Amino acid sequence: MGFGLADELRAQFQTRLPSNVGAQSGPAAPGMPSSSPPASFGGLAPVPPSGASGAALGQPTFDPYATAPSSGIFPWSGGGATGAASPLGSISPAAPPAGSPASTWGPAAGTAPGSISTTPPSLFPNGLAGSWITPQGQIVGTPLRFLQGPRIRHGWLMGDEGRELDVNETDVSVVLTFPEFLYSTQPLYIAPSFSLNLWEGPAGPDFPAGADLPGQTYAAYLDNYWRSDPSRLFGAEVGVRLGLWTDFDTLTTDSFRIQGLGLFRVRLTPALTMKLGAAYLDRNKIKLVPAGGFLWEPNPQTRVDLIIPQPKFARYLTTLGNQDVWWYVTGEYGGNAWTIERAVDGGSDRFDYNDIRLVAGIEWGSSELFRDRRRLGFLEVGWVTEREVIYVRRPEDSFTVRDTVMLRAGLGY
Fold first, then answer.
1. Residue 102 falls inside a structural domain
2. Which of 89, 321, 354, 404 could form a disulfide with 67 if both were Cys (CB 3.0 to 4.6 A apart)?
3. Which structural domain range is residue 171 located in?
């Protein structure tokens, strides 16, 4: 009897329905939403009507059941992997599921398209890999390698008979790259370096009787360099070098030295940039020198660096395979300062070796390297003049040396 009553009530209800409302499985009338339930609770967007007439309902501008952005409460919610599918959208779980690899959680897993990243602030917001990897894992641009090198450079200054001072200079380093340093768009370069200088001389009757140099001197130092975005109107370049310069038979507070470079930069025209600043050499004879000048790039094949103390003119020559080849002429203030043990009396002393070098050479590398002011290798020959050795404790032993020829080559420098 209960079933009969239910059938009677259903029949009365159906007789009162409007005639244009079909069965649940039937098509909707024009201009009316479908009475069929959505496929899932998250997809509330109406199905377009099948009729040819009537106003169609468009996609709603706001869907309250769309994928919810991460709240940023949990360490891995700001750009981390999302949890399992949910009727309310993908929601970051309170903790990674048991047994899940750590590499699938956290910022390295990427951010779902459309979500809002809430990564906490850090010195390197895009990680050590750099900003060329998008949240979706796509690689854009030219990536910077965290470790570059090793780099090596060797130069030979030929000795002169009668006033002989033969010098071999070898430098080795690697470069560590930290992209997006301090939220800038530019990387910080840190280069642990080691240098060896081999001295043959002084020898000959024209040198002071007490003049002497050790067979070798060393330098172990750390180079740090950063520059602001070169495409901006104003910018800066900062370099700091700190380390030990000694023969390792004498190690004093004078063995530890700090050198630096600071330049303010302003772009005058798209092709002309002015730089102004100073270079701190921390030598016994010269401590501080002005630095600056003009950088002019009239076309992609020419670069005129009228920057003191190392001006350079470079011109594109040819391309061999995938390597661009440039020729150049440049000048530099060479030498350095060390602490040594004197052979004349066994005491500690400091000395400068200073010179001026006029150099011509060729350099090669990919076009991407040259755009970043770097190169793969170089070969050069130079004329070295104004050569002098200056002692601090026994200045009477100081001497000058005749001009000579320099040959130098390097990879990475």
1. no
2. 89
3. 153-411
